[in-house]
Design goal:
300 residues, alpha+beta, three-stranded antiparallel sheet, 10 helices, kinesin binding, Kinesin-associated protein 3, KAP3
C-alpha cells in the first residue's frame, strides 16, 4: 500500500489521534476507530492545508474459538496493532471474552463491512452535458485527445464516479481506469483542472475499503505525494514573484503615479488568488486520498 508516511516530513505531517474499541456486529473481529490528522507544510514549516479523517481498522480474529486463551490473544493484539495503547489491554481482553461467548448469527446476509467516507464537495469543470454509464467508452477515447478533451473526458467519468452505484461497473472497465492513471502520470503538470479531476475519480474509489487495491495498484498514492511536493514549490515561486512585484510597485509609487504598474500588480494578485483556489482543491483531494489509503484494514 502506498503510504504518505514515506514522503518528506517537511511537506506532510501526520498525526493519529484518539482510539476507541468496539466489537464487530457480525464477525469475530474488533473495530478500532481513530482520527488521522494530516497537514501539508510549506518550506518554512508553516501549515498550508490540513485535513482530518475518521478512520477504522478491523482486526479479524480467525483463531478465536471457545477454547482460546483470551488473555494471551489480547496481549498479541495490543503488541501487533500500534494504534492500541498498552493501557487498553484489559479492555481488549474483555471485548475478546464477549466475542468468545457471543452467539454467532446464522443470518446469510453478506458480512463484509465496507467503510465509506464522505465525498468532498467538488463539481469539477462545468460541462453542458450529463454523463451516462453507457457512454463510458466514448469518454475513454477523449483521454487520448488534446488536453481540453482529456479534461472533458475525465470530468464526465468523474460525474459517474461520484455515484457509488457506478463504481463497481467502472472498476470492471480496465481501459478506463488504466487510461485515467496514465493521463494523470503523464499530463498532471500540464493542467491543474485535469490533475484535480482525475485524482477525484480515484478519491471516489479510495472512499471505499474494497477498492483500495485498485488505487494502490496504479501507485496513485505515490503520485499524489509527488504532486503535493511540486505544488508546494510552485506556491513558493508564486509568493516570491508576488512579493517582488509588490516591492517594485511600492518603490515606484513613491516617485511616480504610473497607473500601468499599479494595474499590473493588481492583475498579478488576482491571478495569484485564482491559482491558489485551484491549487487548494488539488492539494485537498490529494491529501484526502492519502488519508483514505492510510486506513489499514489488513487482518491481524
Amino acid at each position: 500500500m502506498d503510504s504518505f508516511q514515506t514522503g518528506d516530513p517537511r511537506y506532510l505531517k501526520r498525526k493519529v489521534k484518539g482510539c476507541t474499541l468496539d466489537v464487530h456486529p457480525t464477525e469475530r473481529a474488533l473495530i478500532v476507530q481513530y482520527e488521522v490528522e494530516a497537514t501539508v507544510l510549506g518550506e518554512l514549516g508553516i501549515p498550508m492545508v490540513g485535513e482530518r479523517k475518521e478512520c477504522q481498522k478491523i482486526i479479524r480474529l480467525k483463531s478465536l474459538n471457545a477454547h482460546t486463551d483470551t488473555s494471551s490473544l489480547a496481549r498479541k493484539v495490543v503488541e501487533e496493532c500500534r494504534l492500541i495503547h498498552s493501557s487498553k489491554l484489559l479492555e481488549v481482553e474483555q471485548l475478546l471474552f464477549y466475542l468468545q461467548n457471543r452467539k454467532q448469527s446464522n443470518d446469510n446476509q453478506e458480512k463484509k463491512h465496507i467503510s465509506s467516507r464522505e465525498l468532498k464537495p467538488y463539481t469539477g469543470v462545468e460541462l453542458d452535458e450529463e454523463a451516462s454509464i453507457n457512454s463510458i467508452d466514448e469518454y475513454v477515447e477523449l483521454l487520448y485527445e488534446d488536453i481540453q478533451e482529456k479534461i472533458r473526458g475525465a470530468t464526465l467519468i468523474f460525474q459517474l464516479a461520484r455515484n457509488p452505484d457506478n463504481l463497481e461497473e467502472l472498476i470492471q472497465n480496465e481501459a478506463a481506469i488504466g487510461a485515467l492513471a496514465r493521463v494523470l502520470r503523464e499530463d498532471w503538470k500540464q493542467s491543474v483542472d485535469l490533475a484535480t479531476t482525475i485524482i477525484y475519480v480515484f478519491y471516489c474509489f479510495s472512499s471505499f475499503s474494497q477498492f483500495h487495491g485498485l488505487v494502490t495498484h496504479f501507485k496513485i498514492g505515490a503520485l499524489c505525494m509527488n504532486i503535493i511536493e511540486h505544488e508546494l514549490k510552485r506556491y513558493d515561486l508564486w509568493q516570491d514573484e508576488l512579493q517582488k512585484k509588490k516591492k517594485a510597485y511600492i518603490l515606484f509609487k513613491k516617485f511616480s503615479e504610473n497607473q500601468n504598474l499599479k494595474k499590473e500588480h493588481e492583475k498579478s494578485f488576482r491571478k495569484y488568488q485564482s491559482l491558489l483556489v485551484k491549487q487548494e482543491h488539488l492539494l485537498r483531494v490529494a491529501l484526502g486520498l492519502l488519508l483514505n489509503l492510510a486506513e489499514d484494514t489488513r487482518q491481524s
